[in-house]
Protein 1
Amino acid sequence: MQRTPHVAVVGATGAVGVEMVETLEKRNFPVGKLTLLASARSVGKTLTYRGTKHTVAELTHDSFKGIDIALFSAGGGISREFAPSAAKAGCVVVDNSSAFRQDERVPLVVPEINPGDVKSHQGIIANPNCTTIITLMALYPLHQAFGVTRVFASSYQAVSGTGAKAIEELQRQVQQIAAGQPVTREVYPHQIAFNVLPQVDSFLPDGYTKEEMKMQVEGRKIMHHPSFRASVTCVRVPVYRAHSVAVSAEFERPITVEAARAVLAQAPGLDIVDDPARQRYPMPLDTSGHYNCAVGRLRRDIALDNGLCFWVSGDQLLKGAALNAVQIAEELLK
């Protein structure tokens, strides 16, 4: 890998693609050359990187000649179609979709947790699900210290996780309600303004959604913990940005709030915001735009043996997507 690699961002005009370009710049990633790729309808749009306008080109199977690293965030279908072509051209793909996460040949990486897995790549590395990443930023350090066996969790997921059109839908509905107009919807099956939807992604035959199962399935792979169990309810809330998760975790070994706090204080990429007396706890408004996730509301779980409750919040466009992808690219250069 070159020290100043030629980097491509696929899906550059999407919500996560834009964040990827900004994150490369903010973290001073040593980009030798930047190529922006997207579908035909986005060709000709420009994004500014280091003060220079870069024009978006059309994604084709021949786009990857001479490119060293490609950050993909254009959906699973695009990744399945084009990532193998990129890998065949000698490019390392960091894919933000769910397309390759369960492929045994593809590492699933959170750099604070399993950076060593990057080395086993065969041209493609997968970025985990955003809610899973945000949860594991707090759960994994606790697992290392106390051995997690299972979690019960509920997510509070921002509309930007669905994309730019969902942000517009929430804005439009708030304005419609304020003006006394009928509420229109295109993205979600129900009104999202002043409402919560206990459905993120599509339902599986057992009644869980795909999103809900990702925490168990991906958590096992990332933590190298094949017996980890997670019962999750994922909820879409009328928040623009940053996901939050309420977690009840059970551990093999006894755990106290004091011991948990000492562990979490050492965890990379995580801030403790936990002062109930002063109403201080993590909130999406405060984690939006920040690289670190935040954990708080630490307390003993009174319904579980060796249990701990906590609340974690993080920017799902950054640590849940763009930042994590760029951190994986940084691991590739080490």
Protein 2
Amino acid sequence: MNYSLIDIGANLAHDSFDDDRDEIMQRAADAGITRIIVTGSSDDSNVKAAALAESKPGVLYSTAGVHPHHATDFSDESDALIRGLAKKGVVVAVGECGLDYFRNFSPREAQLDAFRRQLDIAKDCGLPVFLHQRDAHDDFVEVLEPALPKLSRAVAHCFTGEGESLHEYLAMGLYIGITGWICDERRGRHLHDIIGVIPDDQLLLETDAPYLLPRTIRPKPASRRNEPAYLTEVLKTVAKARGQSVDHVAHITTRNAVRFFNLPES
């Protein structure tokens, strides 16, 4: 089938792609992934992601933000860097930002402060936010909800939660990003039962490469490294779980990504 998919979250600035990034992008194009949003998650990766996007105009775009794992590194310089990058046409969202109490690589107060400051940047710049939340639902909602009226749009990136949190995010107007987690028969089975409640106009697809290699790929790849070409596996699994055609899910998620990130119509 001929797809025209958009991977809304791939960490292409990750050093695991340094040796074969061009080949990875060619495989993605061959698989029908026409555009990729490169995730920024730290000062260094934000600069690298934007440079990658500028090197492949019309194909790569990027985000700029500080992941909660790196919240202790968030500084006035980080704030200024994100604001500066946000003026570039290739930077289409603020983030990845949010809260992660599962690992707590940064103290919670540092995470909360960095999250609030990045929401302020998004408000000031008029860009949507690319959100991360793990085991921090209550604090996440408490910080995000008051900010939403002044934010253009927001996506719950890599949603892996339960039905209750999904309903709450949808009621808040969040878009929902689904990754290869749904392809994991051990951890992602519950998503099959709830993904159907996501309205057609709030669903987005992503790989989160190099992480979350879909476990449904046959034959299994020799490497555990995920890449954007495997977005088609997420697409097929999501379509089956929603009881919709692959073509329909490809169409709506591409349309949603264009609208969410304010991309040019292809």
